[in-house]
Amino acid sequence: MNWTDLDNWIVITGILSALSCALLGNFMVLRRLSMMGDAISHAVLPGLAAAFLISGSRDSITMFFGAAVVGILTAVFTDLIHRLGKVEESASMGVVFTTLFAVGLIMIVKGADAVDLDPGCVLYGAIELVPLDTKTVFNIPVPRAVIVLTTVFVLNALFVIFFYKELKISSFDPELATTVGANALWMHFILMTLVAVTTVASFESVGSILVIAMLIVPPATAWLITDRLRTMILISLLIAELSAVLGHVGALKLPNFIGYEDTSTAGMIAVASGALFFITLFFGPKHGIVIKSVERFWTLLRISREDILGLLYRLGELKNVNDLQVNSDLFRKVTGYGKGMYFSAIISLKLDKKICVDNGNFKLTDRGKRMAKSLIRSHRLWEAYLHKYLNLPIDHLHFSAERFEHVTDSKMQKQLLLKTELPTQDPHGKDIPE
Amino acid sequence: MNGIHNVENVSKIPVLVHDLTVAYQHKPVLWDIDFEVEEGQVIGIIGPNGAGKSTLIKAILGLVPKTSGRILIYGEIYKKQRSLVGYVPQRESVDWDFPVNALDVVSMGLYGKIGWCKPVTKHYKNLAMFAMERVGMADYAHRQISQLSGGQQQRIFLARALAQDAQIYFMDEPFVGVDAATEKAIVTILHDLKSKGKTVLIVHHTLQTVKQYFDSLIMLNMRIVATGLTKNVFTQENLHKTYGGRLTLLEEAVQAYTREARIHE
């Protein structure tokens, strides 16, 4: 499979379409209006069909006009049915867009004899055919779809840049936006109109079903990565572009691996953006599931290590031996840890030279002893503090101190010392190590 | 308060509400509300749940449509006086996971001044920072807002209103669910605003603190039960009238009336 000029145009079309959608999609996701994008992308069909049947051409500006009008009507109808009919918002959205979509389908099927608008093309798009329909710009034949999508992208970009502040405030706090004069309702309808126009422009490449993936998935992915709006928009654009490229490459290459013909580029673009979303969900820096589990493991490991050192120190103290040796099998039973955590902790302590092993017996090294002393010191100072300030009974002290000792740094230790007035023994009568 | 004022007088009254009625889906929420407030006071709006306290504020700010009535801010309709009014909505009214930091939220109070399509310049960021300092939140300017405690979020909202540098402030339950430090911060700000001759209207629901916080009261339960200086109107009798249940007969009549009015339209 060779990469040709046709492929270049297909990728450019995909990218432009993905970028235009993602720009607006950010605000749809943030306004919890994700499914409104889906509704509009379906509902514009009758507008499209009507304009098409009247003008008889796909090139016409009337097509956008028709789509934009129906797009706004979708938002208006949804709102009206929700408020006046007391129907739940998502239900009223469902009623409006399926009805409009069905009307559109009937119109297309009825008119199909007269004009060349194919229902399949509307549903799934025909990005592969885009390079065949060209117009000459500066002596270069440019696909018509690319011209249209470039216009829409520029329009959307200008909208987001110039009305960034207004979009932000009306998405975050519509009431405040309205009181300071940035009418939230107007912003809502302008946004919906642009979504309708963008949807129509993207129809040819991805169709009405997959356009929702382009609107929603890149922004949703970006939101997993950052919590700044500007960054979120930039990342969503990057992801949109990446999915368009990966989508086309994937459509050409991936099926060959498993012995099939090329597959639909539009489908693969949606699959690629979905894949990027899941990768981010698992490996993302902020809320990534993997990162969280790793962090959790490290925390548990640190606590187990500290508990083991503390326990060894206490055993030595109990038997009044300076260099106590403990049988390792016996010791594991005493700690009560699971095998995995126990051995991870022991191995890392050994590597750190905090304990050493001699004939199956554990012993604290000097480094280990220092660290253990500091821990026990924190623990017993906390017991003294809790006893003094919270008036906790003696038998309640250990539990809390056990938790606090792991988060006590030297600064906190100094403060504890001051507050407890330099005790030498804890409330149980045990020495507080230096 | 018979609603007859000459023009000169009216332009000195921060908020004048005359004959205000708000009905929502056949249900009356506010019925024939009449009151005016005095400049430089902290005024509490109290009443039971569903008495229309928040709706009253929202109707004044043009956020809910009024069925009838006239509302004047320093003698003019609200749209002309936007720059004079600051608003602190209920904390739950927004999504705190929104990808902005505290400084962004406070800056939003300045959007009206900055004007359409213009970016938030350094000058305005400094103004926002100054407002954050006033509520003791300057150290949290770059925190993502979901990482703030409830009290801190409330202070951010307060800072946003302060940044608006308004003459009249409307606050919807600012004391709900806040810590002692925030409560103290809000009270300090209220004193400060009062000393500068600003007027503050606060929807409030804990009766214990009413005497301590408010110079005047609007006691509300769908209709006005009493308005005036706290020391005069905060009486057992008025409280009983305000909290002692709604006037069911009035409510029924209003419902029937709005239904009919709708049919006549």
Written account of the structure:
The complex is a heterodimer of chains A (434) and B (265). Chain A has 434 residues and is mainly alpha-helical. Chain A folds into 3 domains: 5-212, no CATH class; 288-364, Orthogonal Bundle (Arc Repressor Mutant, subunit A); 377-434, Winged helix-like DNA-binding domain superfamily/Winged helix DNA-binding domain (Arc Repressor Mutant, subunit A), CATH 1.10.10. Helix content of chain A is 73%, strand content 4%. Chain A has 18 helices and 5 strands. In chain A, the strands form 2 sheets. A 3-stranded antiparallel beta sheet of chain A has the order 3-5-4. Chain A has a two-stranded antiparallel ribbon with strand order 1-2. In chain A, a hairpin with a 2-residue loop joins strand 1 and strand 2 (140-143). In chain A, helix 7 packs across helix 10 (184-225) and helix 16 packs across helix 17. The model of chain A has no long low-confidence stretch (mean pLDDT 85). Chain B has one domain: Rossmann fold (3-Layer(aba) Sandwich), CATH 3.40.50. Chain B is built from 11 helices and 9 strands. In chain B, strands 5-6-7-3-8-9 form a 6-stranded mixed beta sheet, with helices on both faces. In chain B, helix 6 runs parallel beside helix 7 (180-195).
